[in-house]
Amino acid sequence: MTKFLGFFISILTIFSVLFSVHLWRLPRGRLMIDFLNVGQGDAILITTPDQNHILIDGGPDQSLLTQLGEVLPFLQKNIDFMVLTHPHADHIFGLVEILKRYQVKAILFSGVNYSNPIYDEFLRIIQSQNIPLYVARANEDWQLGAINLDIVYPLKSLLGISMENINNASVVIRLGYKGNHVLFTGDAESQVENEILKVGFNLQAEVLKAGHHGSKTASGEDFLDKVKPSLAIIQCGKDNSFGHPHTETLNKLTKRDVSIKSNDQNGRIRITISSLQKKNHVIKKQSSNIMFKGRGEVVSQRSPKPLSRVRFLPPLPD
Ligand SMILES: [Zn+2]
Fold first, then answer.
1. FRET pair for 114, CA 20 to 30 Å: which of 30, 136, 197, 290?
2. Is CATH 3.60.15.10 correct for 28-298?
3. How close is the Cα of 91 to the center of ligand 1, in Å?
């Protein structure tokens, strides 16, 4: 009996500890963005104040699984919204691993045509699991609770379109949350930046995920002047063979007093955005944790709403 009681108390203690860790990891009414350290590739997890999880890209290998295990709450196996910016291996590979292990509720992609076995597998799993798949197009908004995802690029549907350089098929998203903005650019290069500039979208964002791993082919002068970021995040791996981030990009950013954080230097990078009423944005830097205090209204901390979108585009054809 004593043995049984001891065993019972041990189990209870383990569960209490795990539950405390789970509570500790909850963002408590704040928006958290984790730029995951997946080496040379992009992978970003957004945790909304309503506990929705958005995953943008998956990096080049299985390191995404370890990274997600470290930031997601214990036993969390749902991804509410997945975005594939474009189907290059350094963005898609980890997403395929997620599709095999997590329940994914909806997926957004550019729809571009690209011949690659891993892209084929990605699409095959989505079809076999019957996951809603949507084609991104500018002027469409997606809302997850208090978070707004404004599609900036592609300007028109790229479904089934072949392109020479699919970096320029990247889905570009401007996230808005109570007056704060973060711009996610995938690997979009200056050609895309210039197209977006011509349309005249509001691109202002406190945080910019610099395009194409900090390559000199992205982050043009005019584009940076329009976005006016306070902070640029560069997702690139240590000693990568492309020489990312390029010195030209770093110079353009420092010239504009933009703070720079990169995965190769800082490891995983977390940004927290709260909705407290403040006149100015405050950036607190603690190693790789950055806190933004926006100037928006105070919102109720937990008002879960179902995933909604403003307009519908057809899913992938057979
Ligand atoms: Zn890339």
1. 197
2. yes
3. 6
Q: Where are the domains of the chain?
A: 28-298
Residues 259, 64, 242, 262, Cα dihedral to 10°:
10
Q: Quote the ligand 1 centre to 318 CA distance (angstroms).
A: 27
Beta-carbon contacts of 5 under 8 Å, excluding residues fewer than 6 positions away, are none
Q: How far is the CA of 235 from the centre of ligand 1 (A)?
A: 9
CA 309 / ligand 1 centre spacing (Å): 27
Distance 214 CA to ligand 1 centre (A): 10
The contacts of residue 177 (CB under 8 Å, 6+ apart) are: 31, 146, 147, 148, 273, 275, 294, 296
314 CA → ligand 1 middle, Å: 26
pTM assigned to the model? 0.82
Q: Which amino acid is at 15?
A: F
User: For residue range 160-198, what is the model confidence (pLDDT) as tens digits?
Assistant: 999 999 999 999 999 999 889 999 999 999 999 999 999
Distance 24 CA to ligand 1 centre (A): 33
Cβ pair 298, 250 in contact under 8 A: no
Query: Considering only CA atoms, which of 314, 310, 270, 316 is closest in space to residue 149?
Result: 310
